[in-house]
Write a structure and sequence with these properties.
globular, alpha+beta
Length: 212
């Protein structure tokens, strides 16, 4: 019985020129893959680099105050704390004398948060126009909110002169960060050491005596 013959021959071997082209193609693919891997690695390395904030933690912070409008507030971070720089209006400054009899520590004599000598005055600042204070309530560390509108204010009385209110437990502070009497907060808002570098620039966390 005859069998149908089958072609058992092997496929023809690629020519030398085909081999060369294949090697070129593989090298090109490998190079492209390496570039893609490198491109992927760059964002990762960038994200792993120490953040500017982390490197400067605890260091003094320079702040431009020239862009703060009258009645405006700018917040910066220093040692993980919010620091408020407030440009007070003449009306805000005038209110400081009116309410001294309602305050727990009008002259900032308490020492839980010692006030720098240059801020032991009615406006608690180097220049009356600008208040520099830590925006953390001295009671349990909540963050007060600004309540600059005057007059009858819910929870603040009918003759509120403006200032700050802590929503956690009801402490309120005047435009110099001084706490009202009979409130949970035991002290005025903290005044960090600071100094002027120019008329429009200050540094928080440092004064003529050095870093805080």
């Amino acid at each position: 019985m005859s069998q149908t013959s089958q072609d058992l021959s092997f496929p023809a071997q690629p020519s030398s020129s085909a081999k060369s082209e294949r090697r070129t193609w593989l090298i090109a693919c490998g190079a492209a893959g390496g570039v893609a891997a490198a491109a992927t690695a760059v964002p990762l390395l960038t994200s792993m680099a120490p953040a500017e904030k982390a490197r400067s933690a605890g260091a003094p912070v320079e702040v431009d105050i020239g862009d703060i409008p009258p009645g405006g507030l700018k917040t910066v971070e220093w040692r993980g704390k919010p620091v408020w720089i407030v440009r007070r209006t003449p009306e805000m400054l005038a209110s400081l004398e009116k309410i001294e009899g309602q305050l727990a520590d009008p002259k900032s004599d308490r020492t839980a948060f010692p006030t720098p000598t240059y801020a032991k005055n009615r406006h608690r600042s180097i220049k009356p126009e600008f208040l520099v204070t830590v925006g953390i309530c001295t009671h349990l560390g909540c963050s007060p909110v600004s309540k600059f509108d005057t007059g009858n204010q819910p929870g603040l009385g009918t003759d509120w002169q403006g200032g700050y209110f802590c929503p956690c437990h009801g402490s309120n502070f005047d435009h110099a960060g001084r706490v009202y009497a009979n409130k949970p907060a035991p002290d005025n808002l903290e005044i960090p050491r600071h100094m002027y570098l120019s008329d429009t620039r200050i540094v928080v966390g440092k004064d003529e005596k050095g870093e805080a």
